[in-house]
Amino acid sequence: MAHNVHVADSRLLETTNRPDEWKIEQGFHGAKIPFLDQSGDVTVEILPREWPKEWKDEEAIKAVGNRDELFAAERDGWKGYVEWEMYPEKKAKAHKILTSQNFPPNPEFQMGPIPGTNPVLPGTHWKMWHAAVGGELTTVAEDSWETVLREKHPEMLHLLQFPYNGEPPKRLTTAKSITPNNLHFVRNHGGIPIIDEEKFSFEVDGLVNEPRKFTMKDLMDESRFPRVKKMITMQCSGTRRIEQIGLYAGQGDEVPQAPWAEGAIGTAEYVGVSLKKVIKACGGLKEGAKHLEFYGADTYFKDNEAMNYVVSVPWSKAKANEVLLCWEMNGERLPAIHGFPLRVMVMGYIGARGVKWLYRVKAIENPSLAPVQSKEYLYFNQQVGKHNQRPTDGIQIQEMPVSSAIMSPWQTQVVIHTGKITCKGWAYSGGGRWPERVELSADGGFSWYAVPLENLSSKGRWRWRTWEMDLPCDVEGWIEIVCRTWDNSLNTQPLSVRAAWNWGLHVTSSAHRVKVYSINKKRPLTARKLELFEKTGSPLAPITWPEEFVTQGWDEYKRFWAEHDPRDVDD
To answer: 397 near 377, Cβ under 8 Å?
Structure first.
């Protein structure tokens, strides 16, 4: 057993006084806690890394060439779009620029307090990467934020300013069973290209018999492509990630791992055409084609490499008419932030497969090797982490499992009621399954009540069900309300977040738990005390504030002990 402790370098623990050290010891600033290496004879403390000073090799960057020319507009009428996948030499030049300087680290938002700002996280290094490459990307961050402010509801919660990640507040998420466009969550991976529809086209190539280009007029020609209208729920695999973060820290990149709450889900009516019909118009697939790769016009960064946003889905999914190319959302043309003029909607899959600003569909033999498909959106075993993870250890996330969330009441909220607590929320299951039963518990998951069927929104293969219920609750004090859902295949949710936790912090599919302080006004003593709070003006909220009146007079106190056995007995 190792007894002695040795510090790996001469730096002191980052603390200036005892209160700071107490916070570190108690895990309130976990990112500052030294690692303990007990693998040898002596325990070694490894202090957190000191970030190097900013540096920049101006000569190396200058040698790359004129960035405004290298990364100029690719197409007339397409602002903020750079084509990377067709030009390896262009990728190499961007890589040289990015590796000839350093950038600030990701902000620590898991092992320390999450910033109380809106936007919560700024995406500083992502802004700097775009600006460093320059050309068409120079003002993408600023232009994208202007689009957010123009198209989204003023009460949106901006989890990440750039690339934009935002969700509606709880009280608005399920206010309607169909999510208004300006309240629908957005999970972007890069900037928002602004594309002139009249100058837009996309191509279908790869392992197709007749590669072709299509305009929006081509797609909208109903004599060629039957129009499809579908109500579709889209869910981010990061929905409810904040619960996993609250339990254990995981992968820390602020873009793939933004601290989503329960609002990273939304339902809208989309209009478009089946991708299967478009493939048929290209003469069908060649032998060996089993996957379809989608290319988006936004720029993504991974490991100091610039690339377009690229993912893939199996041909079998499109063959079943479950992949749409859409141009309309809730009766309106797609907002720019949601992919105008054309986006992919993959029914029952995670939102990451629904590429926005689509400009290319490529038929391929195997799943895409693009990083978003092959190295991200992976579900790892719980023993896999920073020290040992490999992409092949993770399951690529496609269909979302059954899940649900309580949108009201809120975590740690005080509820005054008369024996029933009104609860609201949503339930969803991916892959063409649907919620068949939603259950609530007021005692942490021991006894369950089914939400009445008349209190659930209508069923659909590809959409959520919103619900509302008056949950019986007689007890007072801190309780835990739990929600779980059963889908039509009788899949249900694991009961603990621990069972769902994984290094990538994806797919928080566990039963949703909300701690609530219950005050049952139906109880006579409680009713009298509430009247006393009101009469004396003593604040009831917050619950931790001490009452400002005598809760029991001495006469009542003495009378009680006169009528009952004393606290202690003689024998």
So the answer is: yes
Q: Look at residues 413, 120, 123 and name the one whose alpha carbon lies nearest to residue 245.
A: 120
What is the biggest distance separating any 2 CA atoms in the chain, rounded to whole angstroms?
A: 98
Residue type, position 215, single letter: T
User: What's the N-to-C CA distance of the chain in angstroms?
Assistant: 51
Task: Answer yes or no: are the C-beta atoms of 191 and 130 closer than 8 Å.
Answer: yes
Lowest mean pLDDT among 458-467, 518-527, 540-549: 540-549
Contacts (Cβ under 8 Å, ≥6 apart) of 30: 110, 111, 112, 249
- Give Cα separations from 393 to 379, 385, 389 (angstroms): 8, 10, 7
Angle, CA of 93, 95 and 98, to the nearest 5°: 115
β-pairing verdict for 512-520 and 413-417: parallel
Q: How far is CA 207 from the centre of its chain?
A: 34
CA 429 to chain centre: 16
**Is the bond leading into 494 cis (omega within 30 degrees of zero)?**
no
DSSP assigned state of 1? -
Residues 6+ apart with CB under 8 A from 519: 414, 415, 416, 417, 476, 526, 530
Burial of 522 (0-12, 13-18, 19+ CB in 10 A): exposed
pTM for the structure as a whole: 0.94
pLDDT digits (tens, 9 = 90+) for 383-417: 999 999 999 999 999 999 999 999 999 999 999 99
How does 14-52 read in b/e, with b if 16+ C-beta sit within 10 Å?
eeeeeeeeeebeeeebeebbbeeeeeeeeebeebbeeee
**Is pLDDT larger for residue 452 or for residue 500?**
452
Delineate the domains of the chain, giving CATH numbers in brackets. 10-46 (no CATH), 59-382+389-396 (3.90.420.10), 403-520 (2.60.40.650), 524-563 (no CATH)
Give all strands (DSSP E) within 342-419, no chain letters: 343-346, 358-364, 378-379, 395-396, 403-408, 413-417
d(CA 332, CA 182): 12
Per the structure block, which two tokens stand in for 57? Answer: 């090799």
User: Sign (positive/negative) of CA torsion 115, 118, 119, 124?
Assistant: negative
Could you tell me which of 41, 379, 37 has the C-alpha nearest to residue 238? 379
**477: region left, alpha or beta (phi > 0 left; psi from -120 to 50 alpha):** left
Closest listed residue to residue 240, CA positions, set 436, 458, 400, 107:
400
Answer positive or negative: Cα dihedral of 530, 534, 538, 539.
positive
Strand partners for 485? 438
